[in-house]
Amino acid sequence: MSKFGELIDVKIPVLLDFFTEWNEQSTAMHPVLRDVAAALGDKARVIKIDVDKNKELSDALRVKNLPTLIIYKDGEMKWRQSGEQDVNTLIALIKDFV
Predict the structure, then answer these.
(1) Using CB atoms within 10 A of its CB, is residue 83 exposed (0-12), middle (13-18) or buried (19+)?
(2) What are the extents of the domains in the chain?
(3) Contact 21, 51 (CB under 8 A)
(4) Which residue from 48, 52, 49, 7 is spatially nearest to 31, judged by alpha carbons?
(5) What is the pTM of this model?
(6) How far apart are CA 79 and CA 54, in angstroms?
(7) Long-range pairs for 54-60 at CB < 8 Å and ≥24 separation?
(8) Fold of the CATH domain 2-95
(9) For residue 48, what is the DSSP state?
(10) In the chain, which stretches have pLDDT less than 70?
(11) pLDDT on residue 46
(12) The pLDDT of residue 3
């Protein structure tokens, strides 16, 4: 969990995508997140977290539905939502925290 703290305790917004490869909604978000990362460049970070490989972290954050998207900045959770989101919505949300 200490590595998680290092990931989120940064000055730029960090969008976490909790997913699994066997969940259709999760895999549908892959191209969306790639486009978000490309559009924001170094102004934000997009990190995908496989819940099957990171069960302890997923449990600690009470991730129940997939995909779950969370935005952190300076180590603090700023936004969280489960379910699919579109590229423009995510870019606008993240820009609020840049």
Answers:
(1) exposed
(2) 2-95
(3) no
(4) 48
(5) 0.95
(6) 20
(7) 56/1, 57/1, 57/4, 58/18, 60/1
(8) Glutaredoxin (3.40.30)
(9) E
(10) 1-2
(11) 97
(12) 87
CB of 46 within 8 A of CB of 37?
yes
Q: Would you state the structure tokens that stand for residue 34, as one six-digit string?
A: 């790639």
List, in sequence order, every residue forming a beta bridge with 69; answer none if it has no partner.
Answer: 17, 81
Indicate the helix (H) or strand (E) that contains 5: helix 2-8
pLDDT at 33: 97
The residue whose two tokens read 């925290």 is 97
Q: What is the DSSP annotation of 60-91? A: HTT--SSSEEEEEETTEEEEEEES---HHHHH
From residue 96, alpha-carbon distances to 12, 25, 78, 79, 91 in Å are 11, 25, 10, 11, 9
